[in-house]
Amino acid sequence: MARIIVIGGTGYAGGHIAAEAASRGHEVVSVSRKEPSERIEGVEYVQGDVLDPASLADTLAGADVVVSAISPRGDMTDKGLDAVRALVQALTGTSTRLGVVGGAMGSLSAPGGPRLWDLGVPEEYRHEAKFGIDSLEILQNSEGLDWFYVHPPKEFGAWVPGERTGSYRDGGEVFVEDADGKSYISGADYAVAFVDEIENPRHRGERFAVGY
Hints:
Elements: E1 3-7, H1 12-23, E2 27-32, E3 43-47, H2 57-60, E4 65-68, H3 80-91, E5 97-101, H4 123-140, E6 147-151, E7 169-170, H5 187-199, E8 206-211
Parallel strand pairs: 1-2, 1-4, 2-3, 4-5, 5-6, 6-8
Antiparallel strand pairs: 7-8
């Protein structure tokens, strides 16, 4: 059983990851700045601000894995990267692994590239896409940090929730799409992939894309 701290555990991806990890018997702590509207059985909830790592020192102590499910929206629109940097700084040189919920646009369109980002992103999605790309760069430039980063497919979010099937495909650095060209995964199955990586690490210091 691992002690897993989910930063942003009341959001879409973070909530699914917390639920999946708890269902497998892990010790799960969800950290958010606001009280959750609904609680997941088996998950402990803590209010805290990732931008103030000192305030989370006791919560992070002894963690096997910290999950960053930070979304650059609302009052975190311009602070998301600061939060990622704070986590990287807090965990560098420790035995705690950092897993990051990434964005689709940083994954490759084909082996060797280009990235989906390089093929064009609508203006309304550029800020969030750039956050995912910059977060990955922060991880790749880190030293002494055990990390992994999971790209969702193009269609991923509360507007396309889907159901848990327990299956997914790992595309490595290349985004995943099915035979009909659809790039999608449910929130629950994204969490399955994420927690599988926690339990059986195959991507240390790497990013990988998932989908059906």
